Amino acid sequence: AITSTSSTSLLSSGTKPPGLPGISTPSTVQTSQVSTVQDLIQNSECLIRSLTSPDLFGDERDGIIAKLNQLLSACGIGNGYYKGDQQPVSYNAENPFYQFKAIGYSRRSDYCDSDGIVALTLGINYEQLSSATQRQKFIDSMNVILGNNTNVRAHIELIRPLPDNQTEILLYVTEKGKGRSSSKELCAFLKQPAQDTQLKNQLCVVNVLSRTIVDNVKKNAFIKNPPAGFDSQIWQQAVRDNPDPDKLLPYPIRGFEQLRKRQELQAAEIRLEERVIEELKQRLVQINSKLTAGQNQCSYQRFVF
């Protein structure tokens, strides 16, 4: 079990990441909202027109174009032409007529911000980090990136294989006398240009994410609003059918590649569990051998004395 400890200000001394949200005036926000709604309505009208009543030739060929556009939109590819003087509609996997989509469920993170967990995705195979020696080398490199301070140490929470010969490492950092750095603080520090370059060049890190639980406010907002291209009734039905609402969240799946990715992640998780079980079996065999040797030694000592 993870024990939550107080977060530290160790990493806050670094440069703050750019792009922090500022304060917008009400008029700007209102104008932006109106523009967004108008664009949405216009885009929807163009999409429907491209599928039902294109006006390119003025004869039966327009009906053929409509059927072709319907096929393209169902596949989420290509552009739909509907009027000679208008730009074509671009069809992607987020359009509501895209057919190759489904809804699955993903597990919510169990970590809170004070646990300090950050997920690093490495572009190397799991086997390259499977031994204790290899993992210690990784920790030593992380300590250097963190400033080579003897009071600051990186720790591995978990290592798991990913598809495409990648590996995920859950990492946290502690400072002597202060406990763990917060997840968001550590993530912001590692995404600074200098640290980001070191992570990429020395450890083949391709992505850094803060691993924290989704709070109830964000969770409710997420499940209330269907993802782009999903019917609200189907999405809400998936929300109601959630087998474990406290631990799982509905998750949109678009296209074969995303489905394949989830299948590979599941297969990698199963292989990891099998590896752990096999390691436990080996440890039990070793313990049993030592226990037998100890019993034999005790029996011999009794016989001698």
Automatic annotation (TrEMBL):
Entry's localization field: Nucleus
GO biological process: NLS-bearing protein import into nucleus; nuclear pore organization; protein localization to nuclear inner membrane
Main location: nucleus
Pfam families: Nup54
The Nucleoporin Nup54 alpha-helical domain, residue ranges: 226-292
InterPro entries found in the cross-reference section: Nup54/Nup57/Nup44, Nup54_alpha-helical_dom
GO-annotated molecular function: structural constituent of nuclear pore
Source organism: Onchocerca flexuosa
Region (Disordered), start-end ranges: 1-28
Single GO cellular component term: nuclear pore central transport channel
Protein name in UniProt: Nup54 domain-containing protein
Keywords linked to the UniProt accession: Coiled coil, Nucleus, Transport
Feature: compositional bias, Low complexity: 1-13
Ranges in a coiled coil: 270-297
